[in-house]
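Note to self: keep these together.
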Amino acid sequence: MVTGFENMQKLGKDNMDVAMQSFGAFSKGMQAISAEVADYSKKSMEESSAAMEKVVGAKSLDKAMEAQADFAKVSYESMVGQATKIGEMYAEIAKDAYKPYEGMLSKAAK
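Structure:
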């Protein structure tokens, strides 16, 4: 009877360890995404400010429209690239958070 209790206790500890490893990976990944989003936001604001100065400082309406169009194109490309990068980071979080459970699932399958 004591052996059964010890086995249950070990199983509970093992499950808690796996859950904590998974949570640690998830937390680390979310911090990385938060830092990436903050950096992108800062960069985006700086680029927007520079573009606005360029539009306001344009000598003609044609030059202002050209500067605005260039900014829109670069901004869109940057946003798509950033969204792709963030998507890949989320996929990596999912993989890293699942890794601790792989060993547990393979044991259960046996």
